[in-house]
Amino acid sequence: MQNVFSIFWREYKSYFLSPIAYVVIGVFLFLVANRFVFKFNEFVQLTFEATGEAVNYQQTIPKFSINDTVIRYLFQQMRNISLFLLPMITMRLFAEERKTGTLELLLTSPLTITQLVLGKFLSAFVLFLTMVLPTALFQYFIFLYGNPDLGPVLTSYAGIVLYGAAVISIGTLISSLTENQIIAGALTFGAFLFLWIVGRVSDATLSAWGEVAKYISITSHFTNFSMGIIDSRDVVFYLSFCFIGLFLTHQSITSLRWR
């Protein structure tokens, strides 16, 4: 574990020695905050208008769910935005080491490949958690001025964590396949875009292909979490996705050792 932590801490600190971490975190929080303010204002306006009409016509004041209207939308936006920012985090994990020649030194050190892969993966994953953690402030304001259910908030955060781990494992794999960070970033972005489009296809069709697309879509499995439902099939999917990504990364690095 000490070797894994050493690799993790070395990589995690390196993110903040360059503009990468600040740019990714800043852009992510700006976009999420923008979506939060837009949707929250829309919810407040809708509530006031519906309440005013109910009072004028002496009808029962309708009840609106802030969980369904604001919170679920916010987490869906977090999911989509992170999908297009995470390639900036994962593209350098192994590509930079391969380009500078330091990967050969790591492969000849007492480190095992498993420790190396886990350390690299954890550095990107913890940076992702660092990026997501400040969004709890938005939830604080919602609970301060509203009365949402806590359950869907907690399950949505659990879904975001599992979703992030799965996506980052794919980015780690792609980074191990090339020594060019730009190529790694472009391929990762393309892979993430494909995973997002597959989810859209599954929503647009009811055919057998739509069911297949829904099953393999990494975004579709997040829906239940955002609704406050923890389905073991979704948990297993994300964990399996993450395991396969890390296993293939391990095999990719192992092949480099024998070249």
Textual characterization of the structure:
The chain is mainly alpha-helical. The chain has one domain (2-257). It has twelve helices and no strands. Helix 3 crosses helix 6 (113-132), helix 3 packs antiparallel against helix 9 (181-204) and helix 6 (113-132) crosses helix 8 (150-175). The longest helix has 38 residues, at 19-56. The radius of gyration is 21 Å and the shape is elongated. The two termini are 28 Å apart.
Question: Which key features would you list for this structure?
Answer:
elongated, 259 residues
SSE inventory with pairings:
Elements (H helix, E strand, L loop, with lengths): L1 H15 L2 H38 L9 H25 L4 H6 L1 H6 L5 H20 L3 H10 L4 H26 L5 H24 L3 H9 L6 H4 L5 H26 L2
Short précis:
By secondary structure, the protein is an all-alpha fold.
Low-confidence parts:
none
User: Over all CA atoms, what is the radius of gyration?
Assistant: 21 Å
Compute the separation of the termini in Å. 28 Å
The helix count comes to 12
Number of strands: 0
Mean pLDDT: 83
The amount of helix comes to: over 70%
Number of self-contained structural domains: 1
Backbone shape: elongated
Topology order in helix (H) and strand (E) letters = HHHHHHHHHHHH
How would you characterize the largest beta sheet? none
Relative strand content: under 5%
